[in-house]
Every structure is written in C-alpha cells, then in structure tokens.
Design goal:
This protein is an alpha/beta fold. It has a single domain, classed as Alkaline Phosphatase, subunit A. The chain is 28% helix and 15% strand. The strands form 4 sheets. It has an 8-stranded mixed β-sheet, sandwiched between helices. Strand 14 and strand 15 form a beta hairpin. Helix 6 packs parallel to helix 9. The longest helix has 31 residues.
Length: 470
C-alpha cells in the first residue's frame, strides 16, 4: 500500500461538494470525489494553519493550548502556533522504520520557518518558495506595482508590507508553470517518478493554494466575472488588506469572489496533472489518496472576506476529507459520522498496518466498512474561542473571559448558522459548555499554558516602517 495525502489550504468544503451558491469548475476534483468515500461531517480541531498541521501530522490534539514551547521569532504568534512537542511522533517518523519511503512537497512556508520542526521523519522534501510573506526576496521595490491590487492610498510597502513582499517573490513569474500550485504538483509528480522503485511510499503534498493571495492567472478568474474596465475594479488578491481600510463595492466583491473561484479552478487543473500521472503509472491499484483541507474562508457570508477566530461556522471549520482506497468496495460512500482532522494520522497508520499507542484521533477505516458511533461531538478552537458541535447544535464561546455574546445555533433548522438561539435554550448552552469544561478539566474562563507574545519578532514590515517612512 502506498499513500498520497493532498492537503489544500483555505479550500471550502461547500465549494467542492457544490452546495455553495455559486458553481465553481473543478472537473478533476469532481472525478476524484466520485471515486472516493467522503466524510461529509468533518471538522477542524485546533486552528489555524500550524495547530492544524500538528494534529494532522501526529494524531494528537493541538487544543487546549497546553505547551510552553519557545516561540521567539514566530510570526504570526497565536495560541498553539508553535513547533511540535518532543513527545509527539509524526506519521512519517513512525513509517520509516517500517520500510516506508517518506516524502513531503509543498509551498506552506509556515512549516519551514526557523521556529518549526515539521519535517521530522520525511526522508526528502521540496519546499517551494514564495507564498505570502515568505522571506525569499527583498527587492527591487521599483519593479512591483502595488496599485494593481490595492487602493492608491494604501498601495505602498509601508502601508501593506505583506503585499509588497508577495509581489517581490512573484517577480520572476513568466508562465502558468511558474505559479506556485503548478510548481507544487510538478514537483510531486517528479517525486512519484523518482520513487517508483522505493515502494511502499508515503507522499504528503501541501498546497497553500487557494489561501490568499488569490492570484491565479487572470484568465481563470475571468471565467467567473470580468468587470467593465471603465469601473476601475482592481484585483484585490488579499481582500482583508482592503476591507480594513474601506468597504468594498458590489463590483469589487464579485471580482474578489472570481479571484478565489479562479484560483480553485487553477488548482484543480494542476491536481488533474498529478492525477493523470498516477493513472499513466498504473498506481491506482495499490495507492490510497487522501484529499484534505485545513479550513475554509468567508466569502461575504457574514459581510466580509477571510477567516477569524470568532467565526466557528461551517464556511471556516468544515473540512474536505476524502479517502480513495484501492479496494473498490470501500469507495463511493457519503459518511455522516462526526470526524476531525486529528483522525488523519491514525487513519494513515492504519492504511500501512502500523501499530501504535492510543492517539487522540481515531482510525476511520472501520467507518468505510460500515461501523458507526465514533463520537458524539467535536470541539474546535482558535485562539481564545472554542466551539462544541454535535449533530444538532453548535455552541461558540470565548474561553478566556466571561462572554456576554455566547452563541448557540440549531444547525438542523439553521445550517448557515445565522440566528443565535442561546437565550432561548439555556439548558443546551449549559450542557455543551459543561462538555467543554469537562474536556478542559476546569471551569471557564481559563488561562492557557501557551501565552504567545510578539516580543523579538521582526520582519519585512518592520524594515519598511522604519526605513521607508523616513
């Protein structure tokens, strides 16, 4: 058995199951989905990016934020945003002694920062440089045009250093193959070809696409919306940088959605390139493919773009979690049991037949064989907020202070979670809050062991403010 994991950052689950109000063209992912069993009730555990990868890679919960690992220099610095604890063992570390070749390919630059250690156990890895504010390139500033992606008033490196850094990183891009998603899946294809003699293998692919910046080749976004040139609608490839400055117009909103949709269609093309190689090499008969996302993002569902800790809603916290197994009888199912990202690691180990101590997550292969009754609720946390979700309710609370705005949603009657019914259901609030307190081992509010700080954190933005503002 070989296993390939494809994890796509910020890829909404309702986009790929086509329940989102706008249709997004994803033919290659549609085919893979049809070939797979799909966990339709899959949820994040600890958010965002780095805590999620810890629970995915190890099967150990990231939440509560219980570790005091040194995070000097980490940026962003959030609760749970730190390296893996020494006592946690990655899937890759467990597989190598069993004779499994392990590899990692991706452009998720957070995992390669000096404070991180996520490559433990991978015998080879290819870090594709340049996403977001990756410390790749610092000039020349005269070569970038920030006004293409921002209002004139904030189109400067001092005002938006993150945009400047990304555009510098992209200066050498000439063709579609130079875009980062294309580089990731071309590199993954090379890894497969290089390791055909090294079976069994485990390849973990991390595509930062479609995380912001929503910057596909323009013709992919144009499939969804092309504004009239006279309207001066710019491509706000990182819309949060604008909506903190002013409200977006309706045309700007439509174009920004088109950028996200186009980025997903672009991603789909290059995933298709990779899947075609697997078909050409006849790997389907002995290879499991696991397709994942780490979280979603808001597309003006509640008046803005982007994700935030307070918004523990499905657009943010529901995951894509598909398993395409060589045994055909295990495919083609829609499985509604509550599962979480922390279940990824024990499921991967089960595919390889590797025994291990009890982890926080569960092996999901029995669900493919018809088992039921895995868990009654899931808990998701991001910073000081946590959510307790069961088959009917979602409770969102501030765990670090008494919260006058506790929110409860009846997800059966209100799947979009638009109406807070906490006041009308005090017993449900008490019950779900009690579940969280029991898990934490203390009453709310709590103080976590990990207390992130921005002390000693320096970056391109610090230089831009101190040098260019003079």
């Amino acid at each position: 058995m070989n296993v390939i994991v494809i994890c796509c950052d910020t890829l909404r689950a309702d986009i790929l199951d086509h329940t989102w109000r706008d249709a997004v063209h994803t033919p290659n992912l549609d085919t893979l989905r049809q070939m797979s069993s799909v966990f339709t009730n899959a949820w994040a555990e600890g958010l965002p990016t780095v805590p999620m990868r810890r629970n995915m890679y190890t099967g150990m919960r990231s939440y509560p934020w219980r570790y005091t690992i040194d995070d000097r220099g980490s940026t962003p610095n959030l609760h749970g945003w730190h390296a893996m604890p020494t006592g946690h063992t990655t899937v890759a570390e467990r597989l190598v002694p069993q004779g499994v070749m392990t590899g990692w390919v991706g452009d998720l630059y957070h995992l390669h920062k000096p404070t991180m250690n996520f490559m433990r156990g991978f015998l080879g890895y290819d870090f594709i440089r340049g996403q977001e504010s990756d410390s790749q390139r610092t000039g020349p500033l005269s070569k970038i045009d920030m006004a293409k992606h921002l209002p004139d008033e904030i189109a400067t490196p001092e005002a938006r250093p993150g945009m400047a850094k990304y555009l510098l990183n992209m200066l050498d891009r000439q063709s579609e193959e130079d875009y980062l998603a294309a580089k990731v899946f071309r590199s993954a294809a090379r890894w497969i070809q290089d390791n055909l003699e090294n079976r069994p293998f485990y390849l973990h692919i991390e595509s930062f696409t479609p995380h912001e910046h929503w910057d596909p080749p323009t013709y992919f976004a144009d499939q969804y919306f092309i504004p009239d040139p006279a309207d001066d609608v710019r491509d706000f490839i990182y819309p949060q940088m604008v909506q903190g400055f002013r409200k977006l117009t309706e045309l700007e909103i439509e174009r920004t959605k088109a950028l996200y949709y186009g980025y997903i269609t672009f991603l789909d093309k290059w995933i298709g390139y990779f899947l075609t190689l697997l078909n050409d090499l006849k790997l389907w008969d002995d290879t499991t493919i696991v397709l994942l996302s780490d979280h979603g993002t808001e597309l003006m569902d509640k008046t803005q773009f982007g994700k935030s800790p307070r918004a523990m809603h499905p657009y943010n916290t529901r995951l894509n979690f598909w398993v395409r197994h060589p045994e055909e009888s295990l495919n083609g199912q829609q499985i509604g049991e509550l599962v979480q990202s922390v279940d990824v690691a024990p499921t991967l180990l089960s595919l390889f037949g590797v025994e291990h101590e009890q982890l926080h997550g569960y092996d999901l292969i029995p669900l493919l064989k018809g088992d039921v009754g895995l868990r009654n609720e899931v808990m998701t946390a991001w910073g000081q907020f946590a959510a307790v979700r069961d088959e009917r309710w979602n409770l969102i609370v501030n765990t670090m202070r008494e919260d006058p705005d506790t929110r409860l949603y009846n997800t059966r009657k209100d799947p979009d979670e638009t109406t807070n019914v906490a006041d009308a259901n005090p017993s449900i609030v008490k019950h779900l809050r009690g579940k969280l307190e029991s898990f934490l081992g203390e009453e709310l509010p709590v103080r976590y062991a990990h207390q992130p700080t921005s002390d000693h954190t320096v970056g391109f933005g610090d230089w831009a403010h101190s040098n260019l503002s003079k």
